[in-house]
Amino acid sequence: MNNKIHMKGMFKYSAMVMACVALASGLSGCATSAVTGKKYLKLVSADQVNQQAALAYKDFLSKNSAKVITGTADAAMVKRVGNRLATAVNQYLQSKGIANKYNFNWEFNLVKSDDVNAWCMPGGKVAVYTGILPVTRTEAGMATVMGHEIAHAIEEHSVAQASNQMALQMGGQILGSAAGMTGSTSLGIFNNLYGLGGSLAQLKFSRSDESSADAAGLIIMALAGYDPNEAIGFWKRMAAGSQKGQPEFLSTHPSDARRIADIEKQIPNAMRYYKK
User: Fold this and answer.
1) Choice among 107, 139, 149, 248 that is catalytic
2) What pLDDT is attached to residue 172?
């Protein structure tokens, strides 16, 4: 739910045009997301994005303000649920024959903070804040949150947004150079966008990305053996809490009522993947 590049109208339109032209011309700049099957622009290397995210995650955990909780039942639950989701995702990617495209080095940490929030950086670096624990309540609730966050990484929303920004910066030159762009070029642009070790966790995803992560997150939790129906209870609790002031976790999300209605419609599809 976090990513710094907030899509505005022209941003969306330009990215869409670039994606469509790239698709029509057969350039390698178009990709299809692993779970929802959505098309997106991919002009930067996922491995390079993951490397930058790993540096940012390490930097975040090393700061005095980030107190990682260890040795508690909650901390153990975060790792347990995270590893269960990661195993399910890996098996899913293998079944699709695309596991080699996702070089994830999973890590799950519970961080002491009153913020009602959680996030997953590209490459599988996850943080859950203690402030969200009263809302998750159960392992299924935690799986709802973490499944959603992991979905952002698996669907490569950060990669897509970095690619969109790159397309805007390079303008007309992008189509002629996308296929032959060197790693150093794309990495340089990525560093300009985020800054080496920049806190990707604080970036904002678009509402479209959030809705996509809702749908993919339900499937991911189902694959891991968590009942997708349990997600409704979590989102209703989030909605109740947001009436007291919107938490960071919901900052770019659709309205509470719309989100819950959409999730209810998506549950039957997610149940096809449910393994008790």
Assistant:
1) 149
2) 46
